[in-house]
Amino acid sequence: IHDCDTSTRVARTYDSRASHTHSRVYGSSVDVLHSTQHTAATTFEDTMNSMVHSQCASLAGTRRVTMPRAQRATSAKTRGAVRVNAGLSVDLKGKKAFVAGVADDNGFGWAISKALSEAGAEVILGTWVPALNIFETSYRRGKFDESRKLSDGSMMEFAKIYPMDAVFDNMEDVPEDIATNKRYAGNEKWTVSEVAKCVEEDFGKIDILVHSLANGPEVAKPLLETSRKGYLAAISASSYSNVSMIQHFGPLMNKGGAAISLTYLASEQVIPGYGGGMSSAKAALESDTRVLAYEAGRKWGIRVNTISAGPLGSRAAKAIGFIDKMINYSLSNAPLSEKPLNAIEIGNATAFLCSPLASGITGATVYVDNGMNIMGAAGDSASFQ
To answer: Which residues, 6 or more positions from 197, have their beta carbon under 8 angstroms from its beta carbon?
Structure first.
């Protein structure tokens, strides 16, 4: 059997008294379907070799490559089976990821960092300034060691942890009460533009940007009771911060890189209790994702997507006050009922979206919520009983 570099299909059928054997050659792949009779096997192989040589030479003018007879005998053992690549996997080796919004080991940011690490990426963190000290202390003292374990037994490591407050683009934006706040004391260069510059100086180009942060100071209030200040604060921290991050990190991202943010179903459906302008902030985040996908794609060649994650009982989510009810509601009504949503599922989806396997996906809102987003009525409602 011979190989030729041509996309032309060469098909021939050889008939003999002893057997009927068909051979199809597609480019450099050969799929041979043969009978169990072998009386004409040698004659068939010699005939096919000659036919393929002739056809390849006449159609493509390529150099003939002939396998030694011993190699042909070995190759014959694989006839009748199509060889496929079974090694498809998410591979982020050599990639650098900046993840903003990690302050403990039980939220989406941590799970995303772990999934990216599992795939081989180097992970750099941006942690909210007031939470930085306790996070780094817990990390050093081994409180996160169990959560840091990767599938190969090694421990997840962070290349560097930067102080960051994504509400501010530069120090000129920082009000006096924040600049002099003792929780910010001892830290510097923590605005978005400053962190981006530091990352570029320390690591050069990056490939992955993750926005895993949100804040609504009046999230427990109904929209009708939300103040202008509270509403704008939610928009600033939860959606514009993503715009700012892509503005400042986009120039230092390699072409083909990916930016990911996290959204929630309240952006398009009414979730009572998710107030303070947070539903509006998530709607803005999703709209911005589409616009940024276009603009950043054209300008830097990067992809921008957002993941709509189901409810998770993280420390941050518990601030809403009704997260446990939402988790129970999802368990009862999602298509994948009674299946708890794990943070690592969002992490794995992020790793996929940041990998070459998703090279054609941008501007998308990807749901990772056990299917809750498709439901139009609650199956556990008394009306259905």
So the answer is: 189
Alpha helices in the chain (DSSP H): 41-60, 69-76, 108-118, 129-140, 145-148, 176-179, 192-203, 228-235, 241-249, 278-300, 315-318, 323-333, 343-353
The amino acid sitting at 45 is: E
Residue 345 burial (10 A CB sphere; 0-12, 13-18, 19+) = buried
List the one residue out of 212, 195, 191, 213 whose CA is nearest residue 203: 195
Picking from 351, 352, 323, 328, the residue whose alpha carbon sits closest to that of residue 339 is 328
* C-beta atoms surrounding 130 within 10 Å: 16
Dist CA 232 CA 212 (whole Å): 19
According to DSSP, the residues that pair with 207 across neighbouring strands are none
- Give the alpha-carbon dihedral of 53, 57, 60, 64, to 10 degrees: 60
**Tokens representing 166?**
């994504």
pLDDT, one tens digit per residue, over 305-328 is 999 999 986 666 666 667 888 888
What is this structure's pTM?
0.77
Sheet-wide strand order for 29-33: 9-15, 20-26, 29-33
- What are the distances in angstroms from CA 90 to CA 46, 52, 356? 43, 38, 8
- Cα distances (angstroms) measured from residue 337 to each of 342, 349, 373: 13, 20, 13
Can you tell me the distance from the alpha carbon of 329 to that of 311, in angstroms, rounded to the nearest whole number? 10
pLDDT in tens, 139-181: 999 999 999 999 999 999 999 999 999 999 999 999 999 999 9
> Annotated catalytic sites, by residue?
264, 274
